[in-house]
């Protein structure tokens, strides 16, 4: 299982003695984020079910809280004393599942008043990679499907901004073909510039990056 370990500011070390186990199998990547009000969340991409090898196992968002006892935790507005796993001074409970297929990587970003989770899915099914969106002003954000992406065996995904944050992008690496670069136009992530896309919001949209066999992506500069 995946594990969360607390950073000890006094010793400047991770507390590895009492890690918090996340009740999910087949995990491939993880990203953490903090909602309005300080609530902590962890999104885990799931590649496949380890028992059945099924690739349609959903990815999972967990919410972090404070342990109440060995079996329950306090999660502020999200169900006080809810059943939970606990350890390392933290409690965790399943918050939301997202219908992904062979999710290989996950990325998080906030652009304007929207919060995004993007999943790069290692699947040959067309449009298997996905972007989910939620209200960035909510203390308990619930994600819904925003877009399906035209990827083929996607392996890595990253959000980034450019021009001092005035332009926002998503890039997806794929095992075959090219990496896909999409620009956010305040509504959707677009792959082509057209008359319906404001120039300032779509600068650079519609480009693909000349590389294949991509396993990982990282922002530079």
Automatic annotation (TrEMBL):
Please list every transmembrane segment annotated in the UniProt record, as residue ranges. 20-47
Keywords, ordered alphabetically: Membrane, Repeat, Signal, Transmembrane, Transmembrane helix
UniProt-listed InterPro entries: EAR, EPTP
Q: What is this protein called?
A: Uncharacterized protein
């Amino acid at each position: 299982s995946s594990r969360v370990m607390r950073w000890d500011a006094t010793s400047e070390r991770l507390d590895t003695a009492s890690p918090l186990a996340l009740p999910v199998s087949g995990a491939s990547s993880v990203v953490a984020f903090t909602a309005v009000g300080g609530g902590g969340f962890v999104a885990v991409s799931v590649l496949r079910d380890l028992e059945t090898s099924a690739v349609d196992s959903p990815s999972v968002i967990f919410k972090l809280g404070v342990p109440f006892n060995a079996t329950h935790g306090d999660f502020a507005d999200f169900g006080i004393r809810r059943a939970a796993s606990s350890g390392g001074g933290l409690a965790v409970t399943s918050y939301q599942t997202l219908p992904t297929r062979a999710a290989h990587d996950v990325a998080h970003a906030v652009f304007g008043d929207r919060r995004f989770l993007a999943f790069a899915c290692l699947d040959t099914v067309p449009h298997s990679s996905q972007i989910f969106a939620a209200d960035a002003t909510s203390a308990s954000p619930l994600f819904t499907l925003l877009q399906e992406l035209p990827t083929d065996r996607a392996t890595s995904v990253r959000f980034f901004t450019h021009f001092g944050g005035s332009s926002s992008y998503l890039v997806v690496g794929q095992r075959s073909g090219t990496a896909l670069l999409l620009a956010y136009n305040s509504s959707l992530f677009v792959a082509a510039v057209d008359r319906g896309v404001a120039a300032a919001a779509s600068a650079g949209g519609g480009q693909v990056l000349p590389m294949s066999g991509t396993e990982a992506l990282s922002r530079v500069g």
